[in-house]
């Protein structure tokens, strides 16, 4: 009788606890799922859907690569052409090639200390070669799969993937080609002209029907689209609220205002520099490029736009509170509508005839993070520092 009572009591307890146990089990599964998600590398894409056509015809392979790259946000035809020019020079679009047409030997290839045994479309060597092979094994694919190699280059080549994407977003064919050669491929400097020649040919073949303004400016050197006024544009790094009526005219336009056209001699606003380490499309990135083009360069690592004035002065640059043609201009937080956290930076292009206004060229004010250059007429005021390049 006592055993029956104990058994009955246990049964009652289990019935009572069952819904609570189920609840805690579900809760545990949710916590485990969140833990797994948060410990994944969210900054690295794991998309392996890149498919590149295998063909002995390099144009077919190049077109397939081109179409895959076009799917990436912010990529330009100029940047793609730069990548294709480098790839043609490296491998002739042969994904299975080993440097110097050597026979593939896995033990040699897996030794990261061995140089001069590069593989694939972009001739990965040393540790990058080993990482490519390991990634191929993790995907249960052949290392010579062109789609796998492009996926590796874009998503799994460590910080090199970020460099590739930076080059792919550049707006000048020659500059994109050289940036990718020097910073990403790390190829021989003596091949620059050849790579650029290949790149221009691919640009002419694939970009002719594009309506991307970044593509147009890659060869034209000037922005010819209609003037565009934006009301707001906020972006990490530098931003400008253009709804505040800055200066006298204040509104950003994508063409040089007629009153200033005769004053500006160098209109190559799309020039980019392979030494630029500022984030693509930001005001800092553009200002660095433009100052290099004008022959009065500034250095990397000057900080956010608001920081340039103080940092440049501390590094020995000449600064002033009044505008000078060809100088950079740093806007402190909130000055002339600059971002309240990051500030802004631009380049002084011209001064009005009556000396009361000045025109700046800048980036990240129109069409955020696309590299689009625009112009504004401003007046000198509080929170503005002008910086002479060296």
TrEMBL record:
Q: What is the lineage of its organism?
A: Bacteria, Bacillati, Bacillota, Bacilli, Lactobacillales
Residue ranges, annotated region (Disordered): 214-235
Give UniProt keywords alphabetically: Membrane, Transmembrane, Transmembrane helix
Annotated Peptidase C51 domain residues:
258-388
Is Transmembrane among the key words of this record? yes
Chain intervals with Low complexity compositional bias: 217-235
Q: Does the keyword Transmembrane apply?
A: yes
Q: What stretches pass through the bilayer? A: 12-36
Pfam families according to UniProt: CHAP (PF05257), Phage_lysozyme2 (PF18013)
SUPFAM superfamilies reported in the protein's UniProt record: Cysteine proteinases
> In its UniProt entry, what is this protein called?
Surface antigen
